[in-house]
Amino acid sequence: MRQAITLSSSFEVTSSPAGNYLSALIAGADRDTMAAATYFREALRFDPNNKELLERAFIAALANGNMPDAFGFAERTLKRDPKNGLAHLVLGARAFKAKQYPAARAQIALGGGGRQRDITALLINAWSYAGAKDYRHAIEQVDRLTDDRFMGFRDYHAALITELSGNHAEALKRMKIAYDNERTTLRVVDAYGRLLARNGSIDEAKRVYTDFDHILPRHPIVTAALADLEAGRKLEPLVNSPAAGAAEVLYGLGAAGGQQNDELAGMIYLRLSLYLASDNALALVTLADIYERTKQYERAIDVYDMVPDSSPLRANADIQSGLVLDILGRPDEALTYMKSIVAERPNEVDAVLALGNLQRSRKQFVEAAATYTRVINASPRDQKGDWTIWYFRAICYERAKQWPQAEADFQKALSLYPEQPLVLNYLGYSWVDQGLNLDAAFVMLRRAVELRPSDGYVIDSLGWAYYKLGKYDEAMRELERAIEFKPGDPVINDHLGDIYWQVGRKLEAKFQWNHARDLKPEPDDLERILQKIENGLPEAPKPTSADAETQKNGG
After folding, report:
1. For 485-535, what is each residue's pLDDT tens digit?
2. Which of 180, 291, 454, 531 has the most C-beta neighbours closer than 10 Å?
3. Tell me, what DSSP letter sits at residue 437?
4. Helix/strand/coil for 323
């Protein structure tokens, strides 16, 4: 049984209207929708006729998914601002869900102009006509979208509507047009694949999904669809009702808002979409992703938990929840939770991979290497995109002092992705560190710098390799370049201090070490830095293994 994650948010309303208002503003700026909705509602109780406060409370409630509050605020907003487009859209969605299609169209029509509102109005009106089984007017509405930028919306929704009407030939024709223009859009690919399969074109459906899999390997929705097709199971329509169609319009706008960094608009459209179709897993995951990007991690976990257990995205939602726990500074809980997911779904490769990444981040290198081995053994890992798995396992082997296995994995990663700069950087430095293959190692390190000329960590690796060979002038040149790109990195500042000391610039060396000390280095590094500040360096130093380990990982 899936383990639930319970998080508590600590915020309290006060008896001070001004205090609640200021708290609401801060929460709103931070995209903390729950706190903002609560504080604005409380502030509004003390000043119910404040138009600006009412609008803010309305938007906050809607973004947080408090639909009863949002409907009430929408009605109050329209009494003061009869042309408020968002309020009309919200009330239109409520009418749509109640199958009051003429009322929904009336609300949408009162929402004012603007390109985005026009698109929304046309498509939702089209679905309202479909709800009344007036498919001719529905398609007429959709076909009023003549701007080339919105052809994808037009043909996609026309196909969904004509399929609902039973006109499968026209649906296939329109969906193919949408697909030809949007082959990299998952939603269009999934809708087209499902439509093809239901009309007997199983091989073509498989091809559509497989082509997308080459672009974005192992997406859960695509993997599940291909598995169903192979097993002879029926693929249900992506949209099976007018409400789901209107929700699809709002989902598309919400996803676009999130991608364009308009998070608040994205949240609002996605909340309206979920009001009409609460089981749209992709809308839920998209909303949770917006919460993650705005650092509202508790809200993200809440939304991930809403993904239906029957959805192919359920496992992905669980994985993301575990990763969010780690971001929240609860690594032990994150590991325990991820292990429970893997125990429940031992064949879920992405879950096993996420567990390995968590173990590696916690420096559990032996355990992480074993976990990555499970991923590698689960299926052939010979695609270019799989280089990271071999690279991560190589790092774990190297940190666990199992160099032969590490070297083999680095070489495997390079065979999958020749000249991958991170692999070149790590393997090249490791060879220098051990006095092996020095000519080849420096070729790798220089090439890594050529490929990532503004990556301070990669430049630092080359500089530190020169330092280890006693080539202090070359080392200083590279480290001074590295510090320009990463002035706040404690390791690079520490390394530059070491070089300055060796070339006789001892005052500058102590300045760099002091700076490194203040940049919160790892505890082991801090102890060494403090000793150097106190005592300096001997004339022929050998950097500690901690230096080497930190550097080989790119800083």
Report:
1. 999 999 999 999 999 999 999 999 999 999 999 999 989 899 999 999 999
2. 291
3. S
4. helix
In angstroms, the Cα distances linking 95 to 11, 41, 108, 418, 534 are 34, 24, 10, 58, 74
CA dihedral 413, 414, 418, 423 (to 10 degrees): 90
Which residue, 198, 139, 193, 189, is CA-closest to 165?
139
> What's the mean pLDDT in 230-241?
94
What is the arithmetic mean of pLDDT over 412-437? 93
Determine the pLDDT at residue 166.
Answer: 94
pLDDT band at residue 550 under the 50/70/90 scheme: very low
State the pTM of this model.
0.81
Neighbour count for residue 145 (Cβ, 10 Å): 21
- Among 131, 127, 152, 162, CA closest to 141: 127
Q: Do 270 and 251 meet the contact criterion of CB atoms below 8 Å apart?
A: yes
- How many whole angstroms from its chain centre is CA 77? 35
Q: Degrees (nearest 5) of the Cα angle 385, 389, 393? A: 155
Segment among 33-42, 204-213, 461-470 with least mean pLDDT: 33-42
Tally of CA atoms within 13 A in the half-sphere of 331 that contains its CB = 8
Q: What contacts 554, CB < 8 A, 6 or more positions away?
A: 422, 425, 426, 455, 457, 458, 461
Helix-strand-coil split of the chain, %, nearest 5: 75, 0, 25
Vertex 294 angle, CA 288 and 300, to 5°: 25
Homologous superfamily, domain 421-552: Tetratricopeptide repeat domain (1.25.40.10)
Distance CA 351, CA 354 (A): 5
Q: What is the phi/psi pair of residue 370, to 5°? A: -65, -40
- Rounding to the nearest 10 degrees, give the CA dihedral for residues 409, 410, 411, 417: 110
Classify burial at 363, counting beta carbons within 10 Å of its beta carbon; exposed 0-12, middle 13-18, buried 19 or more.
exposed
Which of the four pLDDT bands, split at 50, 70 and 90, describes residue 188? Answer: very high
**97-104: which pairs have CB atoms within 8 A and are 24 or more residues apart?**
97/243, 97/275, 97/276, 99/131, 101/128, 101/129, 101/131, 101/132, 101/242, 102/128, 104/128
Residue 27 predicted with pLDDT over 50: yes
Q: Which amino acid does the sequence have at 330? A: R
Count of other CB atoms within 10 angstroms of residue 284? 23
Looking from the CA of 101 toward its CB, the CA atoms found within 13 Å total 16
Tokens of 321: 């929840």
Domain ranges of the chain: 421-552
pLDDT of the residue at 261 = 73
CA distance 478 to 461: 9
